[in-house]
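Summary of Year 1 activities. Much of the first year was spent building the evaluation harness for sequence design. The harness presents a backbone, in tokenized form, and records the residue chosen at every position. We chose the following record to illustrate the format because it has been used consistently in internal testing since the harness was completed.
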């Protein structure tokens, strides 16, 4: 059954006309979905009972539900969402003084097998549908309003999955979220984070997208990147650099680099020099140096504070615009790279075993 949330206002207006209903009913339905965020068609009390029954016969509203919520000591909120087919994803609400950000997932699991990421140790089950991504955002927005008294200000696709490998659904969801008839969020407040799918980075340029783009770099040579990010074997740095430059030519939007520091692996002066070489080749406005967050199955460690400080100071001295991003929600496995840590993977495996049995 289709969901109402995937329809534009114009599509709903056409439907009302087809059903011989007044055209303004479409706007009422849309307000229930996007302003009041109801998950019950029968609660749309300004619609006739016959129209509500017809809508309920043809559509459902929300196939995504919150299965579990954890709140960190720093205010970060991690939610485990259950989908209609009983699979799970995770999303995070990150509050600060100036903004409230949703970190959302785009796939159930991931196919990229990055060695430092908890999701990478899961298999990719499927892509999220556009309406599931929208529901995920709307549920986190509802949490933001209840807990912090304000709507989301930013969205980052940095949760489970590679968003550029679910391109159609991700972009459809973004179109709806940024629509004046949807959440009306500026596309400049939405960031897509990619491990480096060169072909789809170029597609973003061709489509003249207005969202921001972040590259999960994490190593600045092909040899090291191949070790921790197998996608680099088919999307090497030369191809990614070329794609990022094409993206900038088409959109005039600078990119951001994400760079997790791993002790003894990518935290030396030589590593910093390699990073600077990449930085100079791309219209990059910022390098986010990220604290590593431990996960099960991976042996990486966070560098000593002195090493991190020296790395940051060296980049700054070389006129690289950089900042150290401190992790949020580490105590509930909600920090960068921790989504789908052991509990979620075990739960999905248990459900899979039950389904097979």
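For this record, the design step produced the sequence shown next.
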């Amino acid at each position: 059954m289709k969901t109402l949330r995937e329809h534009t206002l114009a599509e709903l207006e056409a439907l009302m006309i087809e059903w011989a209903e007044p055209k303004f009913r479409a706007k009422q339905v849309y307000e229930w979905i996007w302003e009041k965020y109801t998950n019950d068609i029968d609660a749309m009390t300004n619609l006739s009972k016959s129209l509500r029954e017809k809508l309920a016969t043809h559509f459902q509203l929300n196939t995504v539900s919150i299965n579990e919520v954890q709140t960190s000591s720093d205010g970060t909120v991690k939610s485990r969402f259950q989908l209609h087919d009983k699979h799970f994803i995770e999303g995070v609400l990150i509050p600060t003084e100036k903004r409230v950000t949703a970190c959302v997932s785009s796939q159930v699991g991931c196919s990229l097998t990055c060695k430092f990421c908890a999701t990478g140790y899961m298999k990719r089950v499927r892509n999220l549908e556009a309406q599931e991504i929208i529901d995920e955002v709307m549920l986190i927005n509802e949490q933001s309003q209840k807990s912090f008294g304000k709507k989301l200000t930013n969205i980052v696709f940095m949760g489970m999955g590679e968003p550029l490998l679910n391109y159609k659904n991700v972009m459809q969801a973004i179109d709806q979220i940024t629509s004046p008839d949807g959440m009306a969020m500026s596309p400049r407040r939405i960031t897509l984070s990619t491990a480096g799918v060169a072909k789809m980075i170029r597609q973003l340029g061709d489509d003249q997208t207005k969202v921001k783009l972040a590259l999960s770099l994490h190593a600045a040579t092909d040899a090291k990147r191949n070790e921790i990010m197998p996608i680099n074997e088919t999307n090497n740095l030369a191809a990614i650099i070329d794609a990022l430059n094409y993206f900038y030519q088409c959109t005039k939007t600078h990119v951001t680099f994400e760079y997790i520091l791993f002790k003894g692996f990518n935290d030396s002066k030589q590593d910093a020099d390699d990073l600077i070489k990449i930085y100079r080749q791309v219209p990059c406005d910022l390098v986010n140096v990220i604290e590593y967050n431990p996960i099960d199955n991976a042996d990486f460690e966070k560098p000593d504070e002195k090493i991190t400080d020296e790395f940051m100071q060296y980049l700054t001295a070389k006129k690289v615009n950089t900042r150290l991003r401190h992790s949020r929600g580490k105590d509930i496995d909600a920090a960068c790279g921790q989504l789908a840590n052991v509990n979620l993977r075990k739960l999905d495996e248990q459900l899979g075993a039950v389904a097979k049995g």
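The domain at 65-356 is CATH 3.20.20.70 (TIM Barrel). Quantitative recovery figures across the full test set are reported in Table 2.
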